[in-house]
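hey team, just a heads up i'm posting the complex here instead of the shared drive bc the drive is being weird again. everything in one block, sequence lines first with there labels, then the predicted structure for the whole assembly after. its two chains so it's a bit long, scroll down
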Amino acid sequence: MTRTIELMSPAGSYESLMAAIKAGCNSVYFGIEQLNMRARSSNNFTLEDLKHIANIGRENQVKTYLTLNTILYDHDISLMKRIVDEAKTCGITAIIASDHAVMNYAKKIGMEIHVSTQSNVSNIDTVEFYANYADVAVLARELSLKQVADISKEIKRRNIIGPSGKLIELEIFAHGALCMAVSGKCYLSLHSHFASANRGACIQNCRRSYIVTDKEEGIEFEVDNEFIMSAKDLCTIDFIDKILDAGVKVLKIEGRGRSVDYVHTVTNCYNAAINSYLEDTYTKEKTELWKTQLATVFNRGFWDGYYLGRKMGEWCDENGSKSSKRKIYLAKGIHYFDKANVGEFKCESHSLSLGDEIMISGPTTGYLELTISELRVNGQAIEKVVKGQSFTIHTPERIRPSDKLYKLVPEAS
Amino acid sequence: MIRIIQQRVKCIGCNACVEAADYRWRISTKDGKCTLVGGIEKRGFFSVIVNHHELNDNLKAAQNCPVNIIKIHEF
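-- predicted structure starts here --
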């Protein structure tokens, strides 16, 4: 059954795509070739992958959105058109665009469009303008929930409909990294390293620590304790009821450059939160549990973004992730014994013992998390396997030779 | 002489190399990535040997490349 709220997950790889689907997303977004905002950081798909992705989406009743939202130059136009044409032919659900050239062309060929957050949609008249092209508008991350609710009400009052003939739907970012610049329009990386964030090449130098120099005497002050340009990660799971009450229909999770365990965990938590909201069982106790789960994967510490009307952003106090767990590569998949539901792996590093928490990921398997209750080598039950040994474990579903097995261990604090 | 090497598959088509040495770099209208003029491909890397007078422009192209896929070797 289709639910009224859509959860959109990032797919930077086939592993993440399958993990997001398993975790209960309603749609995925992904980039191909170089014209997307993760041209540098994620292993982007190519034109040849479009058909396969669209098929996976159809088989799993998951919508597929192609991001084509960088700044475009004249020399990009022919590639852009080829990408939009191919997306239409393959049956991709919609294009996420910010450049008007993309919107114009996609509209001409009858391809559904969503306005990217890069377009900084911040008011109802802009929504009305884009309604000529798009059916979904991703609102600017800097809006407060009151502003979002006002826009939502006004869409209904003015009856602002998109090319599909339906009311424009509102989408916002619900979770993930936040750029320090307004709607991601940052030039820091371009200034310092010629790497334009607006072409998907951001080197994230805002995430570093800095020294301030007194120009008169050359005295240097380290900006201590806070990474003053590195915003904490957005997390809305403890006020998702307010977001949905404001009329938002699509919740997007940031993270096409993130790992498969991140995509699975975050999608899983937000899926549960949306279902709880719809079933009227959303409680504070649940949100605390979800937040603990979210903290196990990559994060820079959490804050509410601008939705609740904070005057100042919240900044990180250290570089890198604060995740409470990390993963260690152990083994690769060898074979799956269908009848017995047993997977065979070869241990390539470290060791694995009974009671260990593991994750298995792969391009078709997606993501699987287990606790080891039984380990066998050559049919004999043992307590520990070490590097070089082949072993079998019970897995609730098929594993494949393309799968990798990791041990999940608590991050040393 | 200098050898210019490009790992083309990773190009994001930003045009920075063309701005530095437009006689040596050209954006392909086919796939939007930059083509090393005269380059010969071997295992995904394109390379060309050119006269030393192209050094400065192409060093700039290499420096400006946001994804660091251009290398210059002098010999």
